[in-house]
Structure formats: C-alpha cells, structure tokens
RNA sequence: GCCGCAUUCGUCUAGAGGCCCAGGACACCGCCCUCUCAAGGCGGAGACCACCGGUUCGAAUCCGGUAUGCGGUACCA
C-alpha cells in the first residue's frame, strides 16, 4: 500500500489568486477529501522580484473564502504555521536547497555554469536562425577544475546546471495515462540555482515535494513538459517519485489559455461581482470533471464525496460565464434567509457608499424582501439594480415613460388618479398586497381597462421601471406614504389634463 | 521550428464495442403560468461523435495516419 495520500497547492505570490490556481487547489482539495488524505499549502516565493505579501494575503484569503482549507501551511494571513514539515514557504527553506544542490554537485549530476546572459542569448538566436530547437549548448558542461577556477575568478559564482541524461522519461499520469518524453527535448542541461544563489522552481518543487512527503502531484497541463525534469531530479536525488496527474486547462472563451487580457482571471473579481463561493466551487469542479450523472448542483462536501480524478477530462475547458451565473442563481435560491441577508449587506453598503442608493436598508428590511427578490437576482450585487428605488428618495420619472402603449397621457392621468383614490382608502394596517389588489381590479373592470395597463402605469410611476418584483408586494415594500407621494408626483407630471368622466 | 497533449450540439459535458440514427445542462426559440421582470413547467432547434483508413458480425468507443487546436520550449512559476 502506498504511504498516506498527501497533495498540495503551491501558489506563487506574484499576482492575485487566479481562477486557474483556485481550480487546481480545489481539485487537490477534493482529491484529499475523497481519499482521506492531507492537503498542504506551500508558498513558492523564490521569485523575489515579483513576489509580495499583498499577493500572499489575497491568495490565502481567496482560498479560505472559497472554503478550500489546508491541513498544513505557512503562517500568514493571521494563521499559525501548521504542520510537521514547516516551514511552508520556500524562501525559508533555502538550506534544504543548498544541501540538495551540494549533493548533486558532489555526484557531478550538476555543474557550475558561467555563461553570461549575452552568450546564452546569442546561442538562442543562432539556434533560432538555424531552425533548431533552443537548448543549452553545454559550454560549461565539461570544464576542468582549472577552467572553473579561472571563470569563477573575482567571486563569480555561476549558476548551477543539472546534467540531463540521455533516455526516455515516462510516467503513468492519473488523468492522461502513459506519457513518455525523450530527454533530448528538454532543452539541454537546465539551471537549478541562479547565479545569485537562489534556487529555481524546477529544483525547489522537487526538494519540497520530497521533504513534505507529497504523494500525488496534481497540477495544470501546462506542467506536462516540466514533469520529466522533475522526475530526473527525483531520481538523481534518490527520492521516490510521486504520482503525477495533469489537469486540463481553463481556457478563454476563444479557446486559448486563460489570460487576464481576455478574461477575468482574479477570484477577487468574481467575489466583488457577487458570485457565491458555492457557485464558484461548483462551477470550477465541473470545468473538466463530471460525476457522470445528471445532477448539477453540489456543495463542496458533496463534491468531495463524488470526486474522482479518473473522470477528469483530458481536453481544456472554456470558461462560460453564463453557466456560472446560472449556477449562482441556483445557489442564491438555496441559501438560508439569514445567510443570504448577511451576504447581501456588503453589496448594499457599497451601493450606499457609491451613491447608487440613497440609504442603507436594515437587515430586517432586506430579509422581508427576500421572498420577492431572491429568484430575480443572478448575483449578490444585483439587488440595488432590482429594487434600488426603495432606497432612493427622489425618484426621477420621465412622465413620457408612464403611459402604457394603449393609453394616452389623459387616460393615464385619469387612471392613476382613480387608482390613487382607491389606494388612499387603505390605512397603514390594511396596506397589504392582498388588500390593495382587489379594489384596483374592480376599478379596471368598471372602466373597461386592461389590468396590465393600469398596473404598468402604477409600476412606472412609483418605481421608475418597467420591470420590478410583483407590483403589490413592491408597493407594500415602498410603503403607503411614498406610494401615494410618487403617484401624486406622476399625476402632476402628466399635466393639467382634465380628467374625463 | 521542435516536443507533447487534445479533438462528442455555440459552450460545459454523459458515453469506457451492441442499451446511441448519441443523453443532460447553460445559452437560444416557442408554449404554459402571469400585472412587468424573473423563477418554474412543457416543447423545439442544435453533434454526418474533426477527417481518412483499418480491426470487428458490429465503433463515438480499439489501432494507424492526416488536419486543426492548445500547451511547452527562461538564471518565471
């Protein structure tokens, strides 16, 4: 039996949490949950120039927000470092890499390279011109001790290159079955430690995966061609190879690799637009995976129960925002009242702050609205757009928009006035949808009007919109005073036409 | 260029030799419901399973080739 299942997500804090990273994290998390294994988070921050703590924070916050929690990880974002293989941050593991590098050097599996960027660049250009695949020419591969000393004069350290042996490297990929790559296509001996002494990704990932006892490396398809390098390193270092699985990529709608240019790639953007964690997780899981049944809506926990890497698709999947929105709606309809209100409030606060709405409604008020708005908001951010007129004092309604197609201004004015009178007969106690509707239906019938026309005129006059939740529920939410006030304003706006009859 | 991978409705996918003249979902169209908008229900259109050739009594499913697409090709991760 293999050792305990241990998987990881190893984000690089060189940008905000990317949906591709989130999806890879999710698949690792689900795999761990499904197999009873552990999920580890490791920060790969060796690209010092591009890494920042702000990005670290964004990445860890985003994963937490999605509900993707790790069993072992670094101390950051207000968390304690946790786990038996700390530290979980590469820049704190430098001694490990140095030791591994020394071992490779001692075995002559790696050697110092003193080529300058200019030389390397010239090599590449020459190869390009000769239509040859770019590869390291091996200028420093067989330097004598004297030559090394000479090149390293003046304290020049040189980078460390790993000697790529001849042969074929193959592995049984968890999602793509057998993959084999000839080492002659790896681009020659590759650098594992920079001239300044900092280690490079291909090297650190192997040293860390071994140190942290990672059993399964589940990552994006873009790493397939890196895997032979990693396997070579595992072998050279005498480490057991983990099992690899390469996930299909999330693609832009046009089929190319997901990019900031063509798509929204930051998880934070989706959060800001009012997507729920449930919908995002649900959607990500279904990008490249399917339970094989016709069910579509799953919680994170249910996904963990069903998830199976063998059922993961091999080809990339295009990101389809429409489907995400549909799922978001599904989830908004499933959330408990309290929960939904709590999630809606920040968006209302933002709208109030931006002036989109005039005042911030209380939680109770929002809760009472739920029955009529819940199935009408595709995202948490769309509530103000639906019923913002409830929280705006001066409603600017263009009189020209009030009259239904079949009515002229005079009829509209007369109808609104009559309706206003009927409604004014109610006091605050009987100002209920059930009470408001019958009298207006009577009115419509006695005058030979169409209910839809009268209702639409009232709707536009009181909300300024042609699309709202059911009219009478809306008027109840608006309140008696404001309803009558807005009707009066509309009637006045329709001019001093003499009401007929 | 070279290496690798992929290819089922517009999109996400079901399908692991006969159950498939290919099922579901999103989007689209129509009808129902209905005071508008949604939601929901019902129905429709939409895939010669990339192409060619094999294997087989039988192929979307197995094998080969072609095409197309994508990924990789750094002292980035």
How would you sum up this structure, described in words?
The protein is mainly alpha-helical. It is 44% helix and 9% strand. It is built from 19 helices and eleven strands. The protein is elongated. The protein binds one RNA strand of 77 nucleotides through helix 4, strand 4, strand 6, strand 7 and helix 6.
| Class based on secondary structure composition and strand pairing | mainly alpha
Helix proportion: 40-55%
Distance between the termini: 92 Å
Quote the average pLDDT: 93
**How many individual β-strands?**
11
Adjacency order of strands in the biggest sheet: 3-4-7
Work out the helix count. Answer: 19
Question: So what's the overall shape?
Answer: elongated
Weakly predicted, low-confidence segments: 497-501
Strand content: 5-15%
Secondary-structure element sequence?
A: EHEHHEHHEEEEHEHEEHHHEHHHHHHHHH
Radius of gyration: 32 Å
The description of the largest β-sheet is: 3 strands, antiparallel
List keywords for this structure.
three-stranded antiparallel sheet; RNA-binding; 19 helices; two-stranded parallel ribbon; disordered C terminus; mainly alpha; 501 residues
Helices and strands in order:
Blueprint (H helix, E strand, L loop, with lengths): L5 E4 L9 H17 L2 E4 L11 H14 L27 H13 L3 E4 L3 H13 L15 H7 L7 E4 L5 E6 L3 E6 L7 E4 L7 H11 L4 E5 L6 H10 L6 E5 L2 E2 L15 H6 L4 H9 L14 H7 L10 E2 L2 H14 L2 H18 L8 H11 L9 H5 L21 H16 L8 H15 L3 H13 L7 H8 L1 H14 L8
Parallel strand pairs: 1-2, 8-9, 10-11
Antiparallel strand pairs: 3-4, 4-7, 5-6
The protein binds one RNA strand of 77 nucleotides through helix 4, strand 4, strand 6, strand 7 and helix 6.
